[in-house]
Structures are given as C-alpha cells and as structure tokens.
Amino acid sequence: MCGRVRCTLHVHQVARACGLTSGDDASSLPARQMDRYRPSYNVSPGACLPVVRKAAVGEEAAPAIHCMKWGLVPSFTKKTDKPDHYKMFNARSESIKEKTSFRRLLPTNRCLVAVEGFYEWKKDGSKKQPYYIHFEDQRPLVFAALYDSWSNSEGEILYTFTILTTRCSAALEWLHDRMPVILGNKDSIDIWLNSCAMNFEAVLRPYEGPDLVWYPVTPAVGKRSFDCPECIKEIQLKPTGDKLISMFFTLKPAAADQSEKGGTQKPSSELSQTHYSTCSVKGEHLSNEYEEPKKDEKTVQSDDFASPKMETGQQEICGIKREFEEITADYKPKVENISSWPCSPAKKKERTTKNAGERQASLLSYFGKK
C-alpha cells in the first residue's frame, strides 16, 4: 500500500518529471485549481496534490496539470454522502479491470502523480518502524493513478484520484508485500497516459531498479500533523532484544586474541557463569558485562577446586566450602594455659587451689581418708 508521501515539488518540476516539458517554464501548460496545493513532507489521503491527466472531452488535446484530492470518490456516490478519502486511496492493479469503480475509468481517466518519495512501515510485533523510500539521485517518483469527479448536493464538483499498487519488488519484500506502481522511464509514462489501447498491463509491475533506496525515519511521521524536514531525516535504530543478547555474550578483544593464539578459551556463556559464582562468594556487585579477573587479586575460580566432571552447581558448592574453611582457619583462636597468665599472689594461690580441687581423686587418696 501507499498511504503517506512527500511532495514539495513546484508545478514545473511536476511537468518535467512527467515528460510534459524539458524546461523550467510551465506557464504554457494548462493548470486547474493549483491554489489548493500545499507542499508537504507528510501528505496523507484527503490532501490535494498536482496530477497530470489526459485532456478531458471538450478541452485541448495536450495533457493538463490539475490539483486533486487524494482518495477516490466515485461519480456514482450519493450527493448527500460525506466523501471518505481513506476508502479508496489505493487500487490493486491486478483487479482494476474487474471492479466497477475502476474499470470505467481506464479508457479516459488515467493520470500521473509525481512525488519525491513515500513512506512505508515495517511491523515488528506491536511496534511499527517507518522507512522513507526514494530515488538515489533525488529525482521525482511518478506513480500510475486513476481519477474521477463527483458532484455534491450543493453542485460543487470534486476531483479525486487513487494510486495504483502492485506486488512488492524483491528488494523490498522484507518491508511490505505491496508497493505503488512506479513508471520509471518516459516510455512507460507515455503508455499509461497517452495510449488509447488497453494493453497497459506491461507497465503495471514492480519497479526492480537498483536506484530505489530507503532508510529509517522518525515514528512521528505517523502523525498527520507532523510536517517538517525532520520527516525525511535518517535515524539510527536501537538494537532489538535479540541483538542485545548476542552483544552480551560476545567475547572481549583480549579473549578473542587468546583464542587466536591457540589457547583454550571458554565459551562466553561459561565465562558469565564463572564470574557470577565468583561474585556470589566475594559478595561483589554483579554487573551485566563480563570482566576478566586481574592477576593480583585473590579470585576464587571454579576450575581451581572442581573436577571437570562436576556439574556447575556442584562446582559452586565446593568452591564456597573451601573458601569458608580457608577463612575460618585464619581466625582460629589459640588455647593457652591460664595458669601462666600474670596476676597477684592471692589470686594465684586461689587459682592453684581451685585447679587442684578440680583434679580427679586417685584410689590411694580415697582409702587414705578412711
């Protein structure tokens, strides 16, 4: 589909893009209702754009530039109805010969729409990212279109048009399944606009030229009120969740150099698990990024005390147990003979008597008392 375009072209640029004139002077070309045209970076259905159409019955044979509203309103629409420009702002080129709204327009109501580029949205779950699509050399895009006229209850005549679409090109299949019919050369423009025959199917095909380029733009383009040069400014996309995960498990340059030298290097996932176990024992702050342990620090590594056959959970338990034993060994109190501690003579005699009384009595002392 094609639902947003950029058109800031002057009348002479539109005429030159559609092959009507090679110069910058468009004053000699018939033009109608051009006072309604407002150049915009963000044109949506319901807005007026300059359209190049074939001469109508009773007019001169030369094509004319006519400002029309984007969004077809068929001539058989009731005069009392309110026009809905979003209902038919696009027409599938594969079925224009079948639907009444478009089939009757093919013989005489073919037209051209010149714009500088169009927007398309890439769906990613609930999010949509817009892209700006244009020619690399900045020349205008020329779309195939159909137009019609409708009279309301007050007798006012409204001219409207619809842009034809086709299947997407191979280069843009990742973005969308449809794209506007782009007439990339003068021959295709003449066949669509001036040919009286109905053999125009050859030009209603995807544009496969390599000069059609694109880049991401701000999501603010989705608002119709957002209309400024920022609409077409290229932006840098933030990495998605999958990309962030892959960046988290990417080896640092030092680790990559070691693997190139032939050294044994653990996978990034094992490195992250080892660092997590070390921080848990030491009580350090856990970070989301792996850091290589320094040589001058005492860091508990799972490979220092665990067998290669052990599971990861067993290695962590053994590491914590060994660390606890080493710490408690450094703080084990020494037991000394309290009798050797310095004190006063009276206190020393009391301590000696107490210790003697607490000694276990022998058999000789027991029978000697009797």
At CATH level 2, the architecture of the largest domain is Alpha-Beta Complex
Mean pLDDT: 77
Shape: globular
Over all CA atoms, what is the radius of gyration? 42 Å
Distance between the termini: 121 Å
- Overall CATH class of the largest domain: Alpha Beta
The CATH H-level superfamily of the largest domain is: SOS response associated peptidase-like
The poorly predicted ranges are: 263-308
- Summarize the biggest pleated sheet: 5 strands, antiparallel
Report the helical percentage: 10-25%
Strand order of the largest sheet: 3-1-8-9-13
CATH domain topology of the largest domain:
hypothetical protein yedk fold
Number of domains: 2
Structural class category: alpha+beta
- Percent in strands: 15-25%
The H-and-E topology, N to C, reads as EHEEEEEHEEEEEEHEHHHHHH
Structure explained in plain terms:
- The structure is a single chain.
- With 370 residues, the chain is of the alpha+beta class.
- The protein has 2 domains: 4-232, hypothetical protein yedk fold (Alpha-Beta Complex), CATH 3.90.1680; 241-330, no CATH class.
- 24% of the residues lie in helices and 21% in strands.
- It is built from 9 helices and 13 strands.
- The chain has helices spanning 11-17, 100-103, 186-194, 241-248, 253-260, 268-282, 312-330, 345-358, 363-368, and strands at 4-7, 31-32, 40-43, 48-53, 64-70, 90-92, 110-115, 117-124, 127-135, 141-151, 157-167, 178-180, 212-216.
- It has a 5-stranded antiparallel beta sheet, with no helix packed on it. A 5-stranded mixed barrel has the order 4-5-11-10-7.
- A hairpin with a 5-residue loop joins strand 10 and strand 11 (157-167).
- It is globular.
- Residues 263-308 have low confidence and may be disordered.
